[in-house]
Amino acid sequence: MCGFIGVVGVPEAAAALGMGLQAIQHRGQDAAGVGVFDGKSLHIHKDVGRVEKVLTDEAMRSLAGSSGIGHVRYPTVGAANTRVDAQPFMTRRPGLLLAHNGQVTNLQALARHLASRGIQSTSSCDSEPILLVLADELLNYGVTDFTRDQVTEAVGRTIDRVQGSYSVVALMEVDGEQTLLAFRDAHGFRPAVYGQRGDGSWVTASESVSLDVLEAEIRGHVPAGGLVFMAAGEDAEVRVVRGKEQHHCIFEDIYFARPDSVLETGRVYGLRQRLGAELARRWKGKGLDADVVVAVPDTSRPAAQAMSEELGLPNREGFIKNRYSGRTFIMPDQRTREAAMRLKLNPIREIFEGQRVVIVDDSIVRGTTMRRILKMVRGLGPKALHVAIFSPPVQHPCFYGIDMPTRAELVASGVANTIDGIESALAERLGADSVTFLPSPSLSKVAGDRLCTACFTGEYPVAVADDEQGFIVRERRPMGVA
Which of 156, 420, 426, 445 has the CB geometry, 3.0–4.6 Å to 241, for a possible disulfide? Predict the structure, then answer.
């Protein structure tokens, strides 16, 4: 899971890109990068680390230009700790700058195709093959001044060849002027929004919050299989190139996106509230009782608020999140692992002691985090601990860009054939008095049915061959959603 931003026609583009990237820092904290066009050539600065570490004042002063793209990286394929795999990437022939969010699922096939064309990647990042395929398709025209029709055809052939889930931002010269491109895979798994500023410049990004900080007004979301051309002072041109049935990743709304972002499903905050209200109705139908509702920060706050209102219970801050704890490294023993959990999430005794508590969270994947939270809170003397999750049970791995583990590592996988059975089994495993999930039909009722819910249902909109599944699992980093 990553985040990108692109601008064209923005004075001091590098500074604008840095601001936009800070707004989506939550989408990737392993590496950051910016590339700009100075009127004559492309320049890139990227490295391992967060935006504030990589995009120093000195680095930004060296990146002059009014157009460029930026990226924050959380790798699901490729190395996490090397500058080589950081984005964006570029080619000099043709002059093309590119970054993406998502996951390419046929990397081995693409490597064979590119090798047959005498083209080799310089990294293990799955963004570079998209760049190389697109560049190769463009060079087939044998020209240096590309038209929008030629770029559209080249992007269409790239979408045909590159399988998986991805949204892409690119910068190149089209019809004689610097042009920002944004396109998505045929099913539109990953988000991409674009907007315009008052001075006629354009911004595109993974989330609308990047547009907000740059004072750009949303003009639309890039369609599934669509391509948007943006040039300074001109209207954006939208072309649907290879559009198929939309399968927007619902985990964007549930977990990854900022609550103030606007996705195709609407404002994330509002959707999470509606999911919380729907979850409350299921919880109420079980005949359970409680005294207080507590969110696991931060993603779950809107759902917990709505759930408390629906149930007529107080909503309290039961956990204080340490925003400066950083990543908790692999701990040598149980005692230090528990200390690390408390370092990141410290409970307030008075909220739990003697109370029947509903703990609201967005999902349970491995179950490790929730098990540790419940164990920590049990020591505060609550009367009961109920867990309420505003998504269905995660029973299948994701191959489209969410770093979920293998099926064997998923705590809800294979434990029962019904949601009631899963809830009962997980309550015992996690140490809760009850566990309540939001069923898949309820999720669709709230969010619509143009979704990818493969991690819940096992119904993958785009088939991933067994060898490619194995490759993705082998390449995947050893940490992810807990």
Answer: 156
Residue 20, φ and ψ in degrees, nearest 5: -65, -35
pLDDT digits (tens, 9 = 90+) for 232-274: 999 999 999 998 999 999 999 999 999 999 999 999 999 999 9
Q: Which pLDDT does position 323 carry in this prediction?
A: 76
Residues of the chain predicted below pLDDT 70: 77-80, 325-340, 405, 476-482
- Gap between the Cα atoms of 328 and 179, Å rounded: 42
Residue 1 has a pLDDT of: 77
DSSP symbol at 366: S
Q: Please tell me if the domain spanning 3-246 has the same topology as the one spanning 266-460.
A: no
Three-state DSSP string of 323-338: CCCCCCCCCCCHHHHH
> CATH classification of 3-246, choosing from 3.60.20.10, 3.40.50.11190, 3.40.50.300, 3.40.50.1370?
3.60.20.10
| Res 273: pLDDT | 98
- Give the contacts of 476 (CB within 8 A, at least 6 positions apart): 76, 77, 403, 405
| Amino acid, res. 181 | L
257, 265 in Cβ contact below 8 A? no
**Class of domain 266-460 as given by CATH:** alpha beta
First to last CA, the chain: 15
pLDDT confidence of residue 477:
52
What secondary structure letter does DSSP report for 12? S
Segments making up each domain of the chain, as ranges: 3-246, 266-460
Cα–Cα distance for residue pair 40/19, rounded to 1 Å: 24
pLDDT, position 480? 45
Q: How far is CA 64 from CA 94, 333, 420, in A?
A: 21, 50, 59
| Whole-angstrom distance, CA of residue 412 vs CA of residue 420 | 12
CB within 8 A of 480, min separation 6: which ones? 365, 402, 403, 404, 405
**What is the identity of the amino acid at 463?**
A
Radius of gyration of the chain (CA): 23
Q: From residue 96, give the alpha-carbon distance in Å to each of 43, 47, 64, 227.
A: 11, 20, 17, 16
Reply yes or no on whether 455 is catalytic.
no
Quote the pLDDT of residue 326: 52
In sequence order, what DSSP letters do the residues of 77-113 get, joined into one string? SS-SS-GGG-S-EEEETTEEEEEEEEEES-HHHHHHH
